Structure formats: C-alpha cells, structure tokens
Structure prediction request, 303 residues.
Amino acid sequence: MIKSCVIGLSKVGVIHCESLLKLKNTSLNYIFDKNYNLSKRLSKKFKCNTSRDFNSILKKKDIELFVIASPTTTHNFYIKKLIKFKKRIYCEKPITNNNKNLNKIKNLIKKHKIKFCVGLNRRFAKEYVALKKKVYKKKINYIQIVSRSANHNIDLSIRNGGLFFDKGFHFFDLACWLSNSKPEKMIVISKSISSEDFLSKGDFSDAVINLKFRNGIVVEIVFSRKCRLGNFEKIKVRGEKFSLDSDKFSDKKTLYDDFSVRHRTSYLNCLKKFIKSRNNLLMNEAILTQKICAEALKKARHQ
Prediction:
C-alpha cells in the first residue's frame, strides 16, 4: 500500500483525495493546506491526518507519494522539497510559474531518480480517448479546440499562471497529442478581444490561437472566460473524407458542467496509470506544453 499526502485542497485537490481513496493500492494518510481550518475540516471528512507544519509530514519516511494541487506559484517550492526527501511526485499543471526553472527541475528529477508525473488528465477523458482512437492512422488536416468557461475569478486565474497556462495548458497538450506532432508556427489574437478587467491585471479573458504543426496539421484554438451556457468544451477533427466531433463521445448529461464533474474520472485514471508505471509519466510532454504556453503568452503581450 502506497501511503500518500495531498498538498492544496482546492477543487482539484479534493478530487485527488477522493481518487487516492478509490485506488486499491494507495491510501490517503495526510492532507495539507495553508488554510489549516480547511485542512482540519477535510481531514475529518476523509478520515486522515493533517498538520500546521508541512515539514513534519515531509519527514515521515512511510509517506511515499505527494500530490501537488496547490497554486502554481507554490509548485517550485514543494517540488524542490519533495525531491530532497526522494518522494514520488504527482504535480498538477503547470509544473512551475517560471519557465527558467524547468530545466533545473528536470535535471534534479533525473539526478535523484525521482518518479514524477504531471497531471495532463484530459488525455484520459472518455471523449478524447475515443476521439484519439478514431483518428488513429488517419490523415488529419485540421483540428479545432474550443474552451469557454464561466470563470470570472481573475485573481485565481493569475495565481495559476493566467489564461494561457491555467486554461491553455490542457488544450495545447491535446493539440500535440491528437496531431502527434509539435507546432512550428503560431499566431495569437488576444489583447484586442479581452475584457478590460482582465487586461488591467495583466491577464487575458479571450484568445484565438492558430498553430501550424510540423506534419502540416493546422490547429485553431479558442479560449474564453465567458460562457452563457456555463462551460463549453469541444474538439473537432477533420481530414480526408472524415469529420469527427468530441461531443459524439461525451456524456450529454454533463456536457455543460464544470470540469470537476465532466472530467472527474480522468483524474483518477491519470493517477492510476502513474501509480502503475515504473517510469516518469507525461513529464517531457508537459515541459513541451509549458514552452508553448509561454510562447503564446509572449505573442499575446506583444500585439
């Protein structure tokens, strides 16, 4: 049985707590959040331990796996501490809020032989797994990805890296995964279509990104923090004599629900694969995606 601790008890952190309790070969032993009252309340719900002092948890040799679900601005701090104590690490995206730290983190993971995973859970969502199977070995010409959400919490967006890192990360990754390639050209329109309340704080509310991949596939991505339906997420793939829509494989009952409902099982499946894997999972893919996010942000700022 792998004993574990979840760091950060936001909506995603709570999902990870539930997943660890569902998996046969893991147990949830500790949870930690800067908000001790929240930690205390949820420790009763999940019947596990908590502490005001993170280091006291870190020093427990029997706690092998740590899930980082805290704000992106804290990831670098926790990753370095966990590496020092040779813990297994499952880290929510993005890996860090500073791309300059990416190579340092990668080298430390390699040097200390740390088992590391980045939570690119959309790859494990039912509709996208089905879509990936359907386009296997087919000639793809065009992919359209749309993600609109009723998220007006600007401070939360900024804390997690802003539009391109917070929202964009999963969808840039899905573009690479579905196309089985890497982008070579990028056009970003964002500043002119974003609302002033986001722009005044250095973030963006909307963006249209066009990517051309090395294998010739063109990808159009549309992001927005506004949606009358609540939440809207869809992928269309077109090629020679075929056109596929992810909605065909989606659960119609949860189609406009928040990601924590619509993609809840994908968190479990991603974590499950990492637990079973002998190697690092999705680390190189996440590093590539993080660089794409940074390039998109750079282009948006210099319009």
